[in-house]
Amino acid sequence: MCGRTHGPTLTCGVNGIHTRERVVTRAAPQNRIFPPMNIRPANTPDSFRSSYRRQARLLLLLSGVGIAVFLAVAIAVTDGTVQASDESFLLGLRSDADPSVPNGPAWLLPAMKAVTTLGNGWFFTLVVVLAVAVLAWRRDWSAMWLLIAVSLGGFFLMLALKAGFARPRPVVVPWLIDTAEFSFPSGHAMMSAAIYVSLAVMLARGLRQRGARAALIAAAVLLSLLIGFTRTYIGVHYPSDVVAGWAIGAFWAGLCWLGASMWSARGGGGPVAPGEARGN
Question: Which of 12, 236, 268, 276 has the most CB atoms in a 10 Å sphere around its CB?
Answer without folding.
Answer: 236
